[in-house]
Amino acid sequence: MSEQDGTVPAGGFGGGIQVMVVDDHPMWRDAVARDLAAAGCEVVATAGDGPQAVRRARAVVPQVLVLDLNLPGLPGAQVCKEVVGSHPGVRVLVLSASGEHADVLEAVKSGATGYLLKSASTEELLDAVRRTAAGEPVFTPGLAGLVLGEYRRLATEPAPATADEPGAPSLTDRETEVLRLVAKGLSYKQIAERLVISHRTVQNHVQNTLGKLQLHNRVELVRYAIERGLDDA
């Protein structure tokens, strides 16, 4: 790793998931990066504060950003919002010591795909990174229901203007079916099993739907579905 810019040369881990680790505690940050690298991930960058995290994430565009919330200079939730806003393809996995509901919901509304407590085991972290890279929502047990409740609450707020513009692209029957199951809180794996299709096919349907509706993340997608009553269909 370069002492100058905190980045790691590309290709160091044989095409593994490209991950960036952000935490203001050097020992913790290094330990997480080391565990991920040992598991075959490519740690493309690290950062120790908010502004540095935004700059480096925009420069390297990792597949997964493992992000602490309590950062100097710029809160982790704002880092998430700025990075996902400029690069919607980046998946954010919050790794925090806080299990406070307000922190979890703020992270989700900022665009985080998952939220894991720092008390999680290394195996749980590695599994969470893999699932986050695949676009699956990953939450510490007990938080998933809270997040689904927040999706429902968000349905009372105005949807993004682009989703309601006249002439918005229509979805195929299968895309609508997948969207309905996403709104019910099912994981991609559960949807694949329910519809007897592959996990990758579910991912493709979700990505196509996001593109058609000009939405950026799962939060906006679920809000769109709930507003149209698809979760009750």
UniProtKB/TrEMBL annotation:
Q: Response regulatory domain spans which residues? A: 18-133
Instruction: Determine if DNA-binding is one of this entry's keywords.
Output: yes
Q: What is this protein called?
A: Response regulator transcription factor
Tell me what organism the protein belongs to: Streptomyces catenulae
Question: What are the HTH luxR-type domain coordinates in residue numbering?
Answer: 164-229
Q: Organism classification, top ranks?
A: Bacteria, Bacillati, Actinomycetota, Actinomycetes, Kitasatosporales
Domain of life per record? Bacteria
Q: Which Gene3D superfamilies match?
A: 3.40.50.2300
Q: Which residues carry the post-translational modification 4-aspartylphosphate, per the record?
A: D68
PANTHER family reported for this sequence:
TWO-COMPONENT RESPONSE REGULATOR
One short Pfam name that applies is Response_reg
Fetch the PROSITE patterns from UniProt.
HTH_LUXR_1, HTH_LUXR_2, RESPONSE_REGULATORY
Keywords tagged on the record: DNA-binding, Phosphoprotein
Q: Which residues form a coiled coil?
A: none
